[in-house]
Amino acid sequence: MAIVVFEDDKLDRLYPVSVGRLGYTITCGGFRLIDWLQELQQPIHGVVRPHLTELQACDFAGLAAPPPDRDPLLMVNARLAPSRKTYALLTRILNDGRPGVVRNGADTVIALVSPEIRSQSPLPITREGIPAWLQSLRVADLSDLDATPPMFDYPHDIIRYNQTSIGESLAYRLERGVYREIAEGVFAAEGASFGLHCVTNTKKGPILLDEHAMVGPFCYLSGPAYLGKHARINEHSAIKDGVALGHTTKIGGEVEASVVEAYSNKQHHGFLGHSYLGSWINLGAGTCNSDLKNTYGVVKMEYRGEQVATGMQFVGCMIGDYAKTAINTGIFTGKTIGTCSMVYGFVTTNVPSFVNYARLFGQVTELTPEVMVATQQRMFLRRKVTQRPCDIQLLHAMYELTRHERQLAGEPLSL
Q1: Distance between CA 107 and CA 8 in Å, rounded?
Q2: Integer Cα distance of 140 and 365 in angstroms
Q3: Which segments of the chain have a pLDDT < 70?
Q4: Which domains does the chain have, with CATH numbers?
Q5: pLDDT for 365-378, tens place per residue?
Q6: Model pLDDT, residue 411
Q7: Does residue 224 have a cis peptide bond before it, meaning omega lies within 30 degrees of 0?
Q8: I need a surface site. Which of 61, 262, 341, 391 has the fewest CB within 10 A?
Q9: Which helix (DSSP H) or strand (DSSP E) does residue 77 occupy?
Q10: What is the C-alpha to C-alpha distance for residues 301 and 309, in angstroms, rounded to an integer?
Q11: What gap in Å lies between CA 208 and CA 283, rounded to an integer?
């Protein structure tokens, strides 16, 4: 048995989250899809967008090889929302052993393909070819396995499913890991520390500190919450109601129901709610976002010109990798900030990638990839991370992929 996790053409709708991120590395509930796939203990192979093949080869060397010719394959869409229920479904399909497919609407989410089927119809190892190949297979529908798995159709779905999955995901970590209970409902792994005079509320779920995570004094934490390895919570912070922090993050102020990927900083006072932050982001002191409309209505998002009704009352901001905000930046409800952008003042519209955005002062200017390569090198040095050729290649690729966004003439004010 081998697993093939593949990106389909709809992954582009997850902009700005997906521009420079492998689809199976999006965090939700404190887990990435790749984490759950690795729990299945089978060889894994990844089929990703061309501009990410070099990154995959660097970060997940084993996934870059093509799958064996004669093995049965478990095909998994990279937009599958990672959760304990997802893992349970994948386990049931493997144990059941029947060739078949699981679909969500028109999308093929999971398929178990036998060697016989592969011999009749060879697998195309391309991002474009796999979805069409799966649609063409005449195999059983596995809906009898209670299978309607959620998928990421748009970035706000990450926040939606983070809220519904984080409790069970933390329970799984507690069952499989080694943690000590340091307060009622608060669990710490080796090397984690908890400051003096902190107040916790674990009625809705546990609070889990992974290895060497640190909480400063005088903090308030309300579960469920996951603090990744080497995450740091500064003194006088409030972490509330479904927060998942990646490794080596630094957090201060108030954070509610949000996902923060590895190496991102929100060190200072300010509010972040119902939002997604990619990696290597820095929010300046006093940066706040709105996650609720003044009308208390359902939030509508705009993704690359497409108007999308979220069905959610609370939606904050979706920020791509390497973005930065200046001090006292204010981000309006339901806005996206593109990758590698620098933001100042009030964010009343979506922000393209690779721009200096200061609409409050009448200025939006382009950032070159060379500026971001130099900035990335300085950031990496601060965290003792080596800048690799694949990191530089990715910045240039993201710049080209988002070039069309920077046509700003006549852009309307959107409140």
Answers
A1: 9
A2: 53
A3: 146-147, 408-415
A4: 2-145 (3.90.550.10), 156-406 (2.160.10.10)
A5: 899 999 999 999 99
A6: 52
A7: yes
A8: 61
A9: strand 73-77
A10: 6
A11: 24
